[in-house]
Design goal:
mainly alpha; 463 residues
Length: 463
């Protein structure tokens, strides 16, 4: 069973994770203790062999070999950290991809419940059969990749006994010969039955039928992806490289990390502690890292943290039948909600969460930014004379729109506006600066800006 500890680590506090270190089920101790015992036994054998069974000449030879092995393990000749890190990262991404590819019928059952109509026995039969076919397909694919599911359903007769398949459907299933996995057959039955429901107008339009087919294809794609995850593994050569790197590294550590005679003055061998504490910790970390990769590379086994496939099967068939049968058109009376007459209302808190009401709502990261009084002053840029352009509707005051269009035949709109900013010398003659300023002020007060559509200008100008 999957070991869950989410509640215990919901809040980060002092010593919060220390409680998890003493668990046995699903722990690294349970996964690694046999290898650790073997390593300690081999190390103890060589230690006793060196100290009590070798002659002085043989001890000198053993010490030279130990120094060489120690130099080898303390260098980067074996990149254990690199190969382990990449391997575990690859295995973890594969593990998460397998979990997200698990075929859950939730989307499909919602579409079936909302689009396959009929409160009579025929409508109920269609909905339940459609969802039974979908669940049958997931059982068939899980049976081919999960040891737990295969032990639960060792033969197809066990699937018939469980109610996922009828005897006639079993004969149809076995009558179709194929050299490959036939998990897709129930999904084909689903699509054919959905088409029949459309003919019977249980599915009321083609859009609803298309929605059923889309969700069915998504469901089938996840079943197919699980099959390919089981078929295509991480390349064996890479798994072999990682395993050999870790085991060869600690094979040399068994000799290279021996405590040598301190009287001979070897560098780094000033103490004789008998127990290689840091070597054991290194073994625990590196070998444990390798075991994590081995654990998650295939989560469809029977390890402590492997997927609970049998419970997922039970959950899927139960909720899918409830959704399309008991919950079909089973609605509570539609009534006004509790806050119907209140425009502004607040949801109550319990005493343990009332303190959260004192916290201001988040309105943006710059909402509480402090600014000086100088930053709040409004800066007025220096006034510059702006020449405003007006077009009168008729020709009684200045140049009219028709006259302007006649003068600007073939010109663009910006060119017309430039022409309108200068008075017509023939009609107005020379105007003094004082008169021009007074006329401009009066014109700004009395006249209204007319926005001329570009289409009108284009219509006036010749091609």
């Amino acid at each position: 069973m999957t070991v869950s500890y989410s509640l215990e680590v919901a809040n980060a506090r002092f010593g919060g994770f220390s409680k998890l270190l003493f668990r046995w089920k699903g722990s690294i101790y349970r996964l690694l203790y046999k290898e650790l015992i073997v390593f300690c036994g081999i190390y103890l054998f060589f230690s006793v062999f060196y100290r009590f069974l070798l002659s002085p000449t043989q001890q000198d030879l053993f010490e030279r070999i130990a120094l060489y092995c120690d130099q080898f393990t303390n260098s980067n000749f074996i990149p254990v950290t690199f190969v382990l890190g990449f391997y575990v990262s690859l295995a973890f991404n594969r593990w998460w991809g397998q979990y997200t590819s698990f075929p859950l019928p939730d989307n499909l059952m919602m579409v079936v419940s909302g689009n396959v109509h009929g409160a009579d026995e025929r409508g109920r039969l269609l909905r339940r059969t459609l969802m039974r076919y979908a669940n049958l397909s997931s059982v068939l694919i899980l049976r081919s990749i999960s040891t737990r599911v295969l032990k639960r359903f060792p033969t197809l007769e066990h699937i018939v006994e469980a109610g996922f398949m009828t005897t006639h459907e079993l004969k149809t299933f076995e009558s179709l010969h194929s050299d490959f996995n036939k998990y897709w057959m129930p999904l084909t039955w689903f699509s054919n039955l959905a088409s029949r429901a459309r003919e019977e107008e249980r599915v009321r339009d083609d859009i609803a039928l298309r929605l059923l087919m889309d969700e069915l294809n998504n469901y089938r794609a996840k079943c197919s992806l699980l099959f390919h995850y089981d078929w295509i593994s991480i390349p064996l050569v890479y798994t072999q490289v990682v395993t050999l790197a870790v085991y060869s590294f600690f094979g040399f550590c068994v000799i290279g990390r021996q405590f040598l005679n301190p009287d001979k003055g070897y560098k780094g061998h000033n103490l004789d502690m008998y127990v290689p504490v840091f070597t054991l910790l290194q073994f625990f970390f590196y070998a444990g890292w390798l075991k994590v990769g081995e654990l998650i590379i295939n989560p469809f086994g029977e390890d402590d943290d492997d997927f609970e496939t049998n419970q997922l099967i039970d959950r899927n068939i139960q909720v899918s039948m409830l959704a399309v049968d008991d919950m079909y058109q089973n609605l509570a009376p539609i009534v006004k909600d509790k806050h119907w007459k209140q425009r502004y209302f607040s949801i109550p808190y319990t005493l343990s969460t009332a303190a959260e009401t004192l916290k201001p709502a988040f309105k943006g990261s710059t909402f509480d930014m402090r600014m000086s009084a100088e930053d709040l002053e409004i800066h007025q840029p220096a006034d510059r004379p702006v020449k405003k352009q007006y077009l009168s509707v008729n020709g009684s005051e200045g140049e009219g729109l028709d006259d302007l269009l006649q003068r600007g035949k073939g010109m663009s709109l910006p060119s017309l506006l430039e022409i309108s900013s200068y008075p017509n010398e023939k009609e107005h003659g020379n105007i003094s600066p004082e008169e021009n300023t007074s006329a401009t002020n009066n014109q700004e007060q009395e006249m209204t800006l007319i926005q001329v559509p570009v289409e009108n200008i284009k219509g006036k100008s010749p091609d």
